[in-house]
Amino acid sequence: MIQVNRSGEVWVFAEQREGDLEDVAIELLSKGRELADQLGVKLAAVLLGDKKAEGLTEKLGHFGADKVYLVVNPLLEHYQTNSYTKVIHDLIHKYEPQVFLCGATVCGRDLAPRVASATKAGLTADCTDLQIGDHEIRRTGEVHKDLLFQIRPAFGGNIIATIINYDRWPQMATVREGVMPMPEPDGNRKVEVVRDEAHLGTQDLALEIINQHIEEKKVNLKGARVIVTGGAGVGSKANFKKIWDLAHCLGAAPGATRAAVDLGFIDHDHQIGQTGTTVRPSLYIAVGVSGAVQHVAGMSDSKKIIAINKDPNAPIFKVAHYKIVGDLNQVVPRMIDSIREK
Ligand code: FAD
């Protein structure tokens, strides 16, 4: 376990693939910037990879990093659990950050627990928010200042839990993709690059990667300005065509609730919510969606929400800006007709 270092930096794992940063790394920089400013410390990105990664340091600066810890080694070309854990563990021991954040991606969900275990730190997985705050231990009256409040849904999404870790450092969290806003880049920001070594041998690689196939997502929900989501209330896969048609008229992406996915109306790539994608479009139209907490967790930050439901007491109306109480089989075709007339 490393000593508590109150002046330690805030670190963000700059996840990259083939020399391209993952969006979540940039989202984390925006939150990391806020946390670092509140703590009065530097924000650093941790970037590992082969030569291709070197081109990313400037971009990390433009998106808010003061510093980049850069480790370049041919053995770091592809993410691998053992090699990445070893390098990050060594960096943490050397530079003692107080916060270390990873995206809750496939890679981040694998890496963060290994790093937490290697450094004997705590870890909160799948956070939806992070804040800085003070905490008093009731038993002793001891007050811990400037802790990282790690906020995430718990008990199946029925409560929002705030988790703190006051005696194990760094404070570590993985953060859901899409929950933090994308910052605007500032091309004038300069970044300090700290190059470090990877003490690795081929024995640190558990896998030999022979071929890589990247499955394309069928829909880009995160980038969509308008989303039309269908729920179980749509009734059948055939009737889900109404959702596709409305989405098509509006140039929108079709989304779905988990119930609609489970019923086979649409593919899982379209699922929005706690176990799907988190979205924040300009316009979100929820059709035949009840508004369960697990769904709302993934869409409530949308700028404008229109809900269509035949039940006037449906919980979705609590988060909707515009409420249409009615049968979707009548409302949706009329919406399509009036949009087409324009
Ligand atoms: P229902 O709750 O069945 O609602 C259907 C709605 O359609 C009703 O409000 C009804 O009034 C309305 N309706 C019916 N007919 C019509 C009509 N003709 N016209 C207008 N309205 C009509 N859910 C998610 O969506 N995303 C997640 O990521 C997710 N993750 C989960 C994780 C966990 C651990 C758990 C336990 C659950 C999760 N769920 C998730 C499931 C969630 O709890 C709900 O079951 C789900 O969101 C309900 O989907 P729904 O609103 O489509 O269906």
TrEMBL record:
Residues that, per the record, bind FAD: 257-258, 271-275, 288-295, 309
Pfam families listed in its UniProt record: ETF (PF01012), ETF_alpha (PF00766)
Note describing how the cofactor binds: Binds 1 FAD per dimer.
SUPFAM superfamilies named in the record: Adenine nucleotide alpha hydrolases-like, DHS-like NAD/FAD-binding domain
GO molecular function: electron transfer activity; flavin adenine dinucleotide binding
Record key words, sorted: Electron transport, FAD, Flavoprotein, Transport
PROSITE patterns hit by this protein: ETF_ALPHA
Xref: InterPro entries: DHS-like_NAD/FAD-binding_dom, ETF_a/b_N, ETF_a/FixB, ETF_alpha_N, ETF_asu_C, ETF_asu_C_CS, Rossmann-like_a/b/a_fold
Protein name, UniProt field: Electron transfer flavoprotein subunit alpha
Source organism (scientific name): Anaerohalosphaera lusitana
Lineage: Bacteria, Pseudomonadati, Planctomycetota, Phycisphaerae, Sedimentisphaerales
Gene: etfA_2
